[in-house]
Fold these 4 entries.
Entry 1:
Amino acid sequence: MPKSGIAGRLESVDFHAIGVSSDAKDNPFRITQQQLDQAAEILKLDPAIHELLRWPLREIHVALPVKMDDGSIKVFQGFRVQYNDARGPTKGGIRFHPDETVDTVRALAAWMTWKCALVDIPLGGGKGGVICDPRQMSQGELERLSRAYVRQIGHNIGLVKDVPAPDVNTNAQIMAWMVDEYAFMHGYNEFGVITGKPLALGGSVGREDATGRGVSLTVREAAKILNLDLNGARMVVQGFGNVGSWAAILLQELGCKLVGVGDASGAWVNPEGIDARALKDYVKKNNGLAKGYAGLGNEIPAESLLETPCEVLVPAALENQITEKNAARIKPRILAEGANGPTTPDADPILFANGVYVIPDFLCNAGGVTVSYFEMVQNAYNFYWDLDTIHERLEQKMVAAFHSVHEMAQRYKVHNRLAAYLVAVNRVAEAMHVRGWA
Ligand code: GLU
């Protein structure tokens, strides 16, 4: 007896047949599929397009032999997932993390697909990851790992194929090594193969703070809608890497006061306010939020940070931080998701019921990939823009994306995450349809 509804229509691909890393309900790949299913139902998506969108189009699994400083060879596992390229070459960062799995990479690659569609840039979605702990590795080991990764995937990436970028624990220096290795492999420089590069190697001005700037622009737009005065508004930031630190600095420039901050080394609150810029300088020198920074205030248990009363909360660390367990105690006016996937599907209705205005991840943090796209365009023309041009074009993209989501949420009376899916999935589906994929 065939099953009815989505489950019935979509039983041709077995979840386990593609080698999932876990059955747990917080497996991010399962989460992205559920989120897509909800949107597909509302959009009455063609079943074949829906099914195709539930799975990565292509993925590469690699083993990377790396000579360590002690002379031994260590083999690292890595992935590159090219989720969907209907709208253009796949695009997305590379993470170095000890807890990376193929499913986190699949989920992140799906989210990149929605992100690029939402800000309406002509790119698909992809993501890469290597299971490693960069904090335990020397610069030399990291360089050899980065080059080994490109040697394995270097024939499957390129300006018109798939374009990596920085993400968790990767940065401009790592991108430079990768571009260099790619140039050796192919015999020519193709700077547009990777974005987030140093300025000396075809990077774009304004790329470093682009994700944080996008976060601050979407918070600014949300505050207008909510009639919330950002001047003196309390903000809490979880994660103080590239995204969290720049979001804090730029929101501070809009008047917000940083009253709580945390990273892997701990969490602190200070009602007097913490100077985000000084803290960023400190973190750069000391490799993390160490207790030594004067002005951090009182240390609190890491799990209480997100529950600290505030108007603007920016989770900018990893996925699955806001769940059905803590969501009822998390009540900012605006939840600006700087990280990818910080909120689980069970938490969304709780936040919605409590009147929290959620700026969903693939809208909130889309500034980075938007300027990455600008970087690709500049590389292709070999002609570089000034900072004002970047800021102006980024603002146009972020504001337009924000309002397309807000209007969709009003129209369908759904929360912003589902609204963001409705906008993005519709655009990807349209490209697939005109290509004749389904
Ligand atoms: N890693 C960033 C993200 O998750 C940027 C990706 C890119 O620039 O391609 O959006």
Note: Residues 91-93, 115, 165, 167, 195-196, 340, 365, 368-369, 372 surround glutamic acid (CB under 6 Å).
Entry 2:
Amino acid sequence: MALWSGRFSSDPDEVVAALSESISFDQRLYAHDIAGSVAHVKMLAATGIVPMADAESIVAELLQIRAQIDAGDFEFDPALEDIHMNIESRLIERLGDSGAHIHAGRSRNDQVATDIRLYLRDEINDISSRVRDLQKALVELGSANDSAILPGLTHLQNAQPVLFAHHLLAYVEMLERDHSRLHDCRVRLNELPLGAGALAGSTLPLDRQQVADELGFDRVMRNSMDAVASRDFAIELGADLAILMSHLSRLSEDVILWASQACGYIELDDAFCTGSSLMPQKKNPDIAELTRGKAARVSGVLVSLLTLMKGLPLCYNRDMQEDKEPLFDAIDTVKLVLTAFAPMMRSATVKPEKMAAAAADPGLMATDLAEWLVGQGMPFRTAHHRVGQYVAWCRDNGVGLDTASLEQMRETIPEAQAACLELFTAARSVESRDTIGGTAPAQVHGQLAFWRKELESDGPV
Ligand code: ARG
């Protein structure tokens, strides 16, 4: 019989029970549910709402239940709907009336909101340290290949030469913002809903601050209706994870390109690739492809959560039970992807000679020539035009931009001097982009050193 069955004359229909149950997925909240109940009952005893002896046996029993669930010795009953009822029913089964004290001053509405916040705090810590590990892997790969130069792209067209490490560090920066977003989300969600009751607070003299302190929440939520009605913290995390996955998806896209025969800039370790069932020669970058695919799934979670919440009047509505599966799925997906991605990057073999061959195309240095002319006082637009004409002249006359003579160059750029013919190496091009944030080795090596130091101390979020 359900714990709420007092005013009902029959048990729920079977299909209703199937639709109603959440124990199949919310059982993962058990440790956090028990932590919340322990803090709650200690407070009930401290405030004299429940006799100390009952509270003590409740705490002991809750810890026992936790140990049983840890050990896989606890049988969850779908008829008891959710994790809260499964644990409370077991408590009452074991302790009788003593156990029945636990639910004083709370409802499942503030209970579940508390559980999710506690659970997400831990998951955010976990994901954050995995993000850090991927950052470290990228910095290591960049440091080990700190002179490799490849063509940087715009519109997927070779554009200008850049250091490979510079490219990797762009992702380190994105991941740093992901890390910081996760931190912000954790700060915002770290407040206590428990004590809000079903929606309006309690007639009992609850000490909510004590519970907040015991559970490590930074503050008690000010508004009981907000406490049970809000899931914007879950939406926020969904957004943070969707953005993180979009970054991993873009990195995957780069990795797939780099590992393609068309580029050949890197080779992924066999452990992170799969073969073809038909073509014996194939080695496919499936982990990167799956990461790109799973980014779609996590974007879907964000949309689900936004859609779930947008039409709900205050306060709790049962629809909100549907927040968990998408959220859990996003968390599991992100953790899995990050766990595979860092070692995949660490074990990649870089082919600097392949990168160098592609970056040697003198066309990539056309901007360098235009900027050289600007350095001589020519307006940029004029310089851009002259160099454009030079490119066309070389194409029409079958001459390389870097092999034309000075006389030939002067056909279209009368201001050209001998130094212009020296501009066409990738190494020189990269070295001369020495502005803050530019791709010059002086800049990039400084950034590598900065990140190595920054990532050394993997402090808590
Ligand atoms: N399993 C429910 C959920 O996840 C717990 C809260 C149920 N509250 C209620 N009044 N039925 O949202």
Note: Residues 22, 26, 82, 108-109, 112, 316, 318, 320-321 surround arginine (CB under 6 Å).
Entry 3:
Amino acid sequence: MLVNMNQVLVPARQQGIAIAAFNIYNLETAEAVYRAAVDLNSPVIFAFGEQYIKVANIKIIATIVQEFAGRTGLPMVLHLDHCKSIDVIYKAVQAGFTSVMFDGSKLSFADNLAQTKDVVKFAHSVGVTVEAELGSVPFDHKQSEIPEEYLTKVDEAVRFVSETKVDALAIAVGTAHGEYKGRPKIFHDRIEEIAAKVSIPLVLHGGSGVPDEDIQKAMRQGVSKINVNTQISSVAVKKLKALCAKEKPGHLSDLMHEAEEAMVEEVKLFIKLFRNDAGA
Ligand code: 13P
């Protein structure tokens, strides 16, 4: 069942757990996320990033996710990840996305606030939830410690949420997209300070490679959505590499199926960790 983000994130924040958002960009990634969620009887967020428009048609992705979500009573969200273009947000909503992220993190605070406000006005009028980002979760930062100036400022977060009326806020607290060089330093004090003053669900981007203890602590502190992309792609690539190294790799349909199987298992590990399953 397709729902918007509030229907899964608000209860998650109350329970001190997080809902996983996995990036999807083809049938295999979407099917892997769907199968893992159904196997574990768990809500999930399908996240299609604006950057994947070059490899996948947004309407076709929406149709695939709608088909999967329609097959179960489990709450599932079709979310547009990291979108800088208002036009693409309109297209996603038209295609049936139930949630969008407007990423104004590279804009000035004032412009991010003004543009996010416009997106929220439009999205809320059609029942679509909005995530925004304040501070900057780097895409190309391979260091284990993110510089202080990237982090979300508490007073700005308070003002931003109150004025824009966003539903969820992505905060920069030490994570980065992609692979880390060494153990990332997560600024838990900052999460604590933001969560004490901002009651909406907080979002952690760059979920791949963050130590389990940091994830668990962040969830207790108020992080209710965690984004994962790199690690799911890596297990599929590793599987394909191993299969292609064989003398007779076989038919593409079988290779893709094997890659999907590997992704299902990896997706399940994250879902279990984010809902605090014993032994996850
Ligand atoms: P990773 O690729 O580091 O898992 O981050 C994913 C993400 O934050 C997508 O928005």
Note: The two ends are 26 Å apart (CA to CA).
Entry 4:
Amino acid sequence: MPQNIDGKAISAQIKEELKEKVADLKISRGISICLAVIQVGSDPASSVYVGNKKKACAYIGIDSRSYELPEETTQEELLQLIDKLNNEEEVNGILVQLPLPAQIDEDVVIRAIDPRKDVDGFHPQSVGALCIGQPGFVSCTPAGIIQLLKRSGIEIAGRECVIIGRSNIVGKPMALLILRENATVTIAHSRTENLREVTRRADILIVATGKPKMITREYVKEGAVVIDVGIHRNEAGKLCGDVDYEDVAPVCSAITPVPGGVGPMTIAMLMNNCVEAGIAGR
Ligand code: GUN
């Protein structure tokens, strides 16, 4: 069987490291860190994500402030709140949970967040900094995947990496990050011709298609490392990824499970960004 890339254990380890760091910052430098979390409306999935983020903050020793705004909140009202939080010195990170209701333009909201507090790494300035190799916040899921690979002892430099998916949150920043680690990178997507031929070149295959169990062993080179970003619930209520795990696991050298692979890493990296924001803010 392949190596199990254990996101649950690795994220727990990162959270322990951050907890120690946060305690040390408090004691030795009097620094406390605060994340403001804004949710507009009450989408049940968003409420779960926001709840998990607040729980992680509490565990690590980061203060969290919660802003639960009604579904009918106007863009102007949300922008006013962001402006207020941008100007509050004790707030280090601002997170606006996505998606937002239809009357609010996500791009405008993301751009309104002070890049120094952009712990999601979604601001164009953060993305631009990543693109040209300058310091800035990095989108949490791709940053988490790099940690998964490094902490599992998987070599990145010089290897062929194929990413399926070109979203602003995962695919594009993933390509930039893994390029920074000196991989040779291909981004494939729904319009890619001969997808199987492309994905079979990959030493490291990162899958963010959004389609349950789409990737079967025909897409995977023998001995590849497979990272599954997807998470779906099937009719029976069971979680699965974009990769058909049972079919692919026997042919690869390492694979992330769903759940317990990429998922837990996103929050761990958000916490890491909050700590960095707290340190940079002094
Ligand atoms: N909605 C789904 N994932 C995310 C995320 O990583 N950040 C934010 N702000 N909203 C999300």
Note: The longest strand covers residues 34-40.
